[in-house]
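Protocol step 4 of 5: obtain the predicted structure for the target chain.
Materials: sequence only (see below). No template structures provided, no constraints applied. The aim of this step is simply to have a reference model before the mutagenesis design in step 5. Sequence pasted as it appears in the construct record:
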Amino acid sequence: MMSMTIIAKLLMSVAGILLMVIGVIITPLPGPFGVPVILLGLIILLKSSMWVKRLFMRQVRKHPKILKPVRALLRPGAKVVAMMWLHTLRLERRLLPKKRRFMYGFRHDIRTILRNRRRKPTPKAEPGHKPRKQLSY
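Step 4 output (structure tokens):
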């Protein structure tokens, strides 16, 4: 009889492979839906199989420019949005001439809109009123 851990690892491996195949199939659809599904399948595979971890690390050493960002995304506590933004800027820099780049300006416009939305009028201090110290959590 197979132990439960072997069965669980086998099921996780099958689920990881299935998710990666589904991600590859839906990649041509509009939007970035395939990439997160492929990454989720890769995470499940890396958690369930030691030989996949070894193979992945070998590939990271062979092709660091391609796979180091993927490895960084797989780390716990990764700042996915910031990393995706940086790679979008890098891709834009490689593909588009300087006159056609728009992502930096787009980010600046969004930040300006959000900054203006968050501003609240500051209350005027009354005479003899000492302002309280603001707590930061």
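Step 4 remarks: Residues 103 and 109 are 10 Å apart (CA to CA). The mean pLDDT is 80.
Proceed to step 5.
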